[in-house]
Amino acid sequence: MRTAARAIIIENGKILVMQRKKHGDEYFTLVGGLANDDESIEQALVREVKEETGMDVVAVRLVYVEKHPAPYNEQYIYLCEVAPHPDVAVQDSSEEGYMNRLQANMHQPMWVETRAFAELPFRTPQLQEAMLRAFAKGFPSQPVTLS
User: Fold this and answer.
1) Cα–Cα nearest to 48, from 13, 10, 76
2) What is the three-class DSSP state of 40?
3) Per the domain annotation, does 99 fall within a domain?
4) Distance (Å, rounded) from C-alpha 42 to C-alpha 39?
5) What is the pTM assigned to this prediction?
6) Which one of 23, 31, 81, 133 has the fewest CB atoms closer than 10 angstroms to its CB?
7) Quick check: helix, strand or coil at residue 94?
8) Three-class SS of residue 112?
């Protein structure tokens, strides 16, 4: 089983999500992806955020760990701060940029009002519910395992 890193990035009452269209299925997830064999989960997080948005991560805090049965990935979800940035966009040199050019899959980062987050067809409902609770009461100070 491989591990993945996901970023919770919130600015001005909006959360950054990744709209995906894959094999005819359309859904939303957090920015992020699989860790390579030669990198830590935090290094993967920084790389994936840069590839998928062009943004630079400056601080992270692990808030959730999502457990999934094999062959799916275990996901580490971090609350992230990013450096000041222009608009977000998938970088052309990334795997997502390549897939977008082939029109095989679509990856589109977008800002969504946190109050509209509940209405999204989010990939993992247990994470969506945890995040909705956090929007109302704050994110956990210690990582919480979701299964």
Assistant:
1) 76
2) coil
3) yes
4) 8
5) 0.91
6) 23
7) coil
8) strand
